[in-house]
């Protein structure tokens, strides 16, 4: 988001101001203790102006992801093999970047005393990387194999194909294809109006309806009566 919008967000959400790699940030804590930051930077992506937010203060998109590792070197080497380049170092931080759509940076935080991560509310299960199609996914998957890693076979998630691999630092990566996409079972202009579920989760719809917070304009029941 624009750097001059950070005071607006601090008034709205609280948090503390900090700087990383020359970028002003507003560090926040989510409801389950997860760390979130709003980053002030130049970004050409269209703003998300829902709920009456002024365009000059609205979020543009994902900026980066932080990975905490006891030893960052193996992750640096792995990301370099994937096409990332080192874009800066600052104390315990190393930024890796790849050409992309703005969500193209990974910040590696080396902390040799970091405790093991625990799954649960507020935790991040995996980091997903987009690939255009199965051919690109197969090529990257083979690169993991060549590095001695053990990626899964492609797994059909209805809207995309997934490959998972456990990295040397223990962090789980996913390669997700852009095909067939979320418009496979409804037109693009209808996206976001009905709760759609992949087949593997269709039987959970009643439970999910009870547990998910309703959103304005979102139908929780599938009007077609099918497993979508």
From TrEMBL:
<dbReference type="Pfam" id="PF00903">
    <property type="entry name" value="Glyoxalase"/>
</dbReference>
<protein>
    <submittedName>
        <fullName>Lactoylglutathione lyase</fullName>
    </submittedName>
</protein>
<dbReference type="InterPro" id="IPR029068">
    <property type="entry name" value="Glyas_Bleomycin-R_OHBP_Dase"/>
</dbReference>
<dbReference type="InterPro" id="IPR037523">
    <property type="entry name" value="VOC_core"/>
</dbReference>
<dbReference type="InterPro" id="IPR004360">
    <property type="entry name" value="Glyas_Fos-R_dOase_dom"/>
</dbReference>
<dbReference type="InterPro" id="IPR052537">
    <property type="entry name" value="Extradiol_RC_dioxygenase"/>
</dbReference>
<dbReference type="GO" id="GO:0016829">
    <property type="term" value="F:lyase activity"/>
</dbReference>
<feature type="domain" description="VOC">
    <location>
        <begin position="61"/>
        <end position="178"/>
    </location>
</feature>
<keyword id="KW-0456">Lyase</keyword>
């Amino acid at each position: 988001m624009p750097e001059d919008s950070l005071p607006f967000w601090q008034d709205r959400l609280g948090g503390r101001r900090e700087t990383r790699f020359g970028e002003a940030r507003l560090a926040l804590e989510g409801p389950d203790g997860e760390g979130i930051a709003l980053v002030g930077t130049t970004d050409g992506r269209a703003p998300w102006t829902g709920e009456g937010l002024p365009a000059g203060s609205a979020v543009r998109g994902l900026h980066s992801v932080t990975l905490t590792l006891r030893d960052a070197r193996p992750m640096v080497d792995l990301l370099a093999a994937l096409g990332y380049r080192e874009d800066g170092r600052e104390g315990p931080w190393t930024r890796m970047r790849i050409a992309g759509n703005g969500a193209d940076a990974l910040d590696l935080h080396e902390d040799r005393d970091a405790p093991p991560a625990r799954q649960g509310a507020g935790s991040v299960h995996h980091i997903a990387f987009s690939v255009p199609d199965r051919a690109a996914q197969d090529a990257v998957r083979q690169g993991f194999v060549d590095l001695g890693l053990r990626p899964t076979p492609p797994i059909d998630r209805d809207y995309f194909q997934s490959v998972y691999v456990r990295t040397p630092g223990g962090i789980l990566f996913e390669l997700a294809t852009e095909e067939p996409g979320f418009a496979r079972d409804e037109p693009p202009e209808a996206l976001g109006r009905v709760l759609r579920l992949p087949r593997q989760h269709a039987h959970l719809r009643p439970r999910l309806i009870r547990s998910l917070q309703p959103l304005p304009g979102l139908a929780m029941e599938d009007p077609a009566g099918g497993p979508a």
